[in-house]
């Protein structure tokens, strides 16, 4: 009898362990875009040394804060390297660091020896270069993606448009305290993220430009992403409007399977506990006999 319980316990443990980890997921590591300068630095130059030092500072600092900037002049003050990273505001610091490290390794593969480069993953943004971009607003369009139009192809749907507008409008106004904001209305969710070197007003202005582009470029789309130089805004939908939403920011079709995994995990945990308790009680009463 005891052996049987032990067996079941191992089986349940195996199920629990094999469940997908709810922390740092493919979602945060998802690739959005990368840009590399055409110009390359000279291998072994002081500038390369400064870049390497900036990038390794980034890898280490992301556990301490979700935004940081760096200026490295260690090798040569005449060829400084500037860098920054920004994690999405809803990530924990360990997830932020995982994301930044993943971004750094992808960047070195995608932009070898580039004098300047930037890379955006779902969960974080990194950038470095030889000119200081720190503290400078930048609303240049870098990347844009619109989802398909409404699932039933009715095109103009006032209900959909008003839900999206209600979700988007929560990204601005009020009392912004964070570089990250999220909004939700009906079947729509929205989020925005600024790079931490912008002032509150600059951030709000930048998000406003991104929202304008979402409204004009992704007019009837079920999802949209607009990435500008120093901020981005996105929205996505599910249910009636979601074909297959683009996910990210905690939304999207992946959530359903994640939720299932959690339900299965909790059920397995409860069964495990019951089996364990009955095992303890049996062996305790067995000991008394
Ligand atoms: C950065 O690099 C580019 C290309 O080599 C160069 O034209 C520019 O002057 C550099 N800027 C600084 C501040 O060194
Ligand atoms: C850059 O980082 C320093 C701290 O290391 C901070 O005091 C400064 O405000 C940051 N600059 C910008 C533009 O974010």
From TrEMBL:
Key word Acyltransferase present: no
Localization in the cell: Cell junction, Plasmodesma; Cell membrane
CDD domains: Gnk2-like
Transmembrane segments: 260-280
Signal peptide: 1-25
Coiled-coil blocks: none
Limits of the Gnk2-homologous domain: 29-133, 138-240
Main subcellular localisation: other
Glycoprotein in keyword set: no
Protein's name in the database: Gnk2-homologous domain-containing protein
Species assigned in the record: Dioscorea zingiberensis
Top-level taxonomy: Eukaryota, Viridiplantae, Streptophyta, Embryophyta, Tracheophyta
